[in-house]
Amino acid sequence: MKKYRFNRESKSFDKESLSAGMVILTVLKYCLYGIAAAAVMYLLFALIFSTEREKSLSLENQYLEQEYDKMSEQVDLLDDVIKNLELRDKTIYNDIFGMDPPSTETFIEADTIASDSFLASMTDEELAAYTNEEVDRAEERISNVNRQIRAIFQTLGDEEFKATSLPSILPVENFKLAQTGASLGMKINPFYKTLRRHGGFDIIAAVGTQVLSTADGVVAKIDKASKGMGNSVTIDHRNGIRTIYGHLSEIYVHEGQNLKQGDVIARVGMSGTTFSGGLHYEVVRQGRSVEPVNYFFADLSPAVYRDMVVISSYTGQSID
User: Fold this and answer.
1) If you average pLDDT over residues 56-79, what whole number do you get?
2) Chain segment 211-269, per-residue pLDDT in tens
3) Are 102 and 188 contained in the same domain?
4) Among 156, 173, 202, where does a domain finish?
């Protein structure tokens, strides 16, 4: 680059030579001007014009925001419905049993802690899809609860219905929480040390302990055997429910005998295939074994009932 300087003495322009440093500085200056101009042009272009990907993401964000708002409204609605169902459930429970239903706050709190960590790891898209699935599941559960409540009201309105026709008391008196054994499900058999289906609930009790009928009914069957449940009594409660009492010693009833809830029917023994004294108790509804523990809430405090549910579920080995 040529540079000229005016010479006042000669009244002419003299060519001025530039040093290498001046040339480098001049080049750098123009380069910086060029970079700054390019950056400004890029920013203006980015603010005014959007790429196809940006347009797609923008539309997707708008859709997710709309879906989130809809889901939030649905969740709020479901919360109100669940609170209403809890109130109705509490009212029914109090009317029948004269006490509040057992609390599940301990389990809910533990699940919530795990869920918070799980949800925090999700992307917006995954969270939206997960929330939608949970709303669907909640609606299905609410529908099932409504059907059950209608069935309860229908049963309560039946003039022939008696609360004592449900196996809602424990089959032994003076039950202690430490007597809780394995409940329904896959449990380790004490003889074969393998997982086998356990069809009822084990109550650890001393030999000779009185065994009670848990509901009104008629003695449908008496078995006396050296294996399996040994000496056992089956009672038909005339409402699609039967109860079975196993590993008995003495039996005080006979087939066809009518019973009232709380009647003494036998004594705990060690008959059949068992290592220790105890009672194997089953509830069979419509021909299918159901969880006996679910019926005991009428005979226990909420705290004891809750602990029994936990202990029986986590007891891995049955007595037979």
Assistant:
1) 79
2) 999 999 999 999 999 888 999 999 999 888 999 999 999 999 999 999 999 999 999 99
3) no
4) 156
Q: Are residues 276 and 255 in the same domain?
A: yes
Quote the pTM value: 0.56
Helix (H, G, I), strand (E, B) or coil at 307: helix
Number of domains in the chain: 3
Tokens representing residue 293 in the block: 């523990």
Burial of 75 (0-12, 13-18, 19+ CB in 10 A): middle
Say yes or no: 23 and 59 in one domain: no
The dihedral over CA atoms of 182, 260, 298, 289, expressed in degrees to the nearest 10, equals: 40
- At residue 148, the 3 state secondary structure works out as helix
DSSP string, 77-138: HHHHHHHHHHHHHHHHHHHHHSSPPPP-HHHHHHHHHHHHHHHHT--HHHHHHHHHHHHHHH
Residue 320 falls inside a structural domain: no
Residues 26, 88, single domain; the answer is no
